[in-house]
Design goal:
The complex is a heterodimer of chains A (about 200) and B (about 140). Chain A is α+β, with helices and mostly antiparallel strands and about 200 residues long. Chain A contains 2 helices and 8 strands, in the order αββαββββββ. In chain A, α2 links the parallel β2 and β3. In chain A, about 40% of the residues are buried. The chains are: A alpha+beta (about 200), B mainly alpha (about 140). At the A-B interface, α1, β4 and β7 of A face α4 of B.
Chain lengths: ~200, ~140
């Protein structure tokens, strides 16, 4: 009897660990794929951006398709360098930080919202402080941001608001170290300080 | 005298033709306008009746689907029907897009909560307990 119970514990524990490991592995593979696509498209985007600047068009800033890499997010303080995926559903957030559809891309006038899991890409967000630097690269351009506020809200509270000026909002679950479904959300707001012309260096 | 007769005939013919021309060009537009209004009203009434029927059918389908536990696409409004969009034209992808989280002023933060760390801990605990129990059983047998 004891052997059977032990075997049941062993198998169920192994299955749970396999599920978690598999989920993380799929996310890592998707993130790698997104980075490859991002890198491959960078030259293409540069040409299109130059063409759009000349033609005064905003074709690159149209709504991206779900799952597409839309931006690169770098936070040097916590060694974060991730490709942002369009969408905030389970699959998108498993692959990388997700850009909330309907919000603007980082660098465009308005509120650009990027979310990620606390146990994955934003796992060190508890180390961030007001004044820390955030860098983004998107079809709208490369931007340097500074964190201007951090607030914690209940998961059901209104947390996202449209802004008239250029804003970057990063959200994740709070508390960062929490077992189970975290009850709150950490909302980090950043404002642009500089539009960069050089390519972003890797945070790692 | 013959010139007077000729002039008289010419005047009568000219006036009558001009009068008839004016008469024929005036009447048809009036009739046409009345007809177009009538037909428009008739089309609108028919479309309204069709739309109301469609909405009732869609609601019935939604009710049946909900009773059966099937998620049904939202019913199209009467305005949609009048615009020429039949209620059945709502595809699954449109419904999925509508239900997907998007930016709205005052919206909640995206659902970033993850149970994976809890699952990992439970899995590790299960694996550990199972290993200890299996090892204990084996040790007990060896001692016996």
């Amino acid at each position: 009897m004891r052997k059977l119970i032990g075997l049941a514990f062993f198998i169920s524990g192994g299955l749970l660990l396999s599920f978690v490991g598999g989920r993380y592995a799929v996310g890592i593979a998707q993130a790698d794929s997104a980075r490859e696509r991002w890198d491959a498209d960078e030259a293409h985007r540069a040409v299109l951006r130059a063409r759009d600047l000349v033609a005064h068009r905003t074709g690159l800033l149209s709504a991206p398709s779900a799952g597409a890499p839309v931006a690169r997010l770098v936070i040097p303080k916590i060694n974060l360098d991730e490709i942002v995926i369009e969408g905030v559903d389970g699959d998108a957030l498993n692959a990388g930080p997700g850009h909330l559809p309907g919000s603007v891309l980082p660098g465009v006038r308005g509120n650009a919202i990027v979310s990620a899991h606390r146990d994955r890409h934003f796992s060190h967000f508890d180390l961030l402080n007001v004044g820390d630097t955030v860098l983004t690269d998107s079809p709208a351009g490369r931007m340097k941001w500074v964190i201007v506020s951090q607030r914690i809200v209940d998961k059901d509270s209104p947390a996202l608001f449209a802004t008239r000026d250029t804003t970057l909002t990063l959200t994740t679950c709070w508390p960062i170290r929490f077992l189970g479904s975290a009850p709150d959300r950490l909302i980090v707001t950043a404002k642009p300080v500089e539009r960069l012309t050089t390519r972003l260096a890797s945070a790692n | 005298m013959s010139y007077r007769y000729l002039l008289g005939f010419a005047l009568i013919a000219g006036i009558s033709s001009a009068g008839s021309a004016q008469f024929t060009t005036f009447i048809p537009p009036q009739t046409k306008a009345v007809d177009s209004v009538k037909s428009a009203v008739a089309i609108q009434q028919r479309a309204q009746a069709d739309s109301i029927q469609r909405v009732q059918l869609t609601n019935m389908k939604t009710w049946v689907d909900s009773a059966a536990g099937v998620v049904a696409p939202p019913a199209a409004t009467r305005a949609d029907s009048l615009m020429g969009l039949p209620p059945d034209s709502l595809t699954r992808s449109q419904v999925a897009t509508d239900s997907a989280p998007t930016m709205k002023n005052g919206a909640r933060a995206p659902e970033t909560a993850s149970d994976l760390p809890l699952f990992a801990l439970l899995g590790a605990m299960g694996l550990g307990i199972g290993t200890v129990m299996l090892a204990g059983t084996k040790l007990g047998r060896e001692r016996a």
